[in-house]
Design goal:
mainly alpha
Length: about 80
Amino acid sequence: MSTGGDNDDSTPKRFRRLRFNPLREILPYVCIVVGIVMAARNGFTFSGNEGVLVICSLALVAVGVIAIPVNLWMKKRGL
């Protein structure tokens, strides 16, 4: 008896496409928006420890920007 999993599909694995995943598709854009808002808010009061927050928020934007092409590549390859 078969269990009816994804292994029964006759399509080779390299031709399968990923299904929609909100975390993978939307989260990089959320990171970019939140990072820009945090950098703008903390950039006006650039004093003391808030300089670290500006750098962290810009790093969050960078992570979001890097995640977009990586996710597109993963979607294309079916990983």
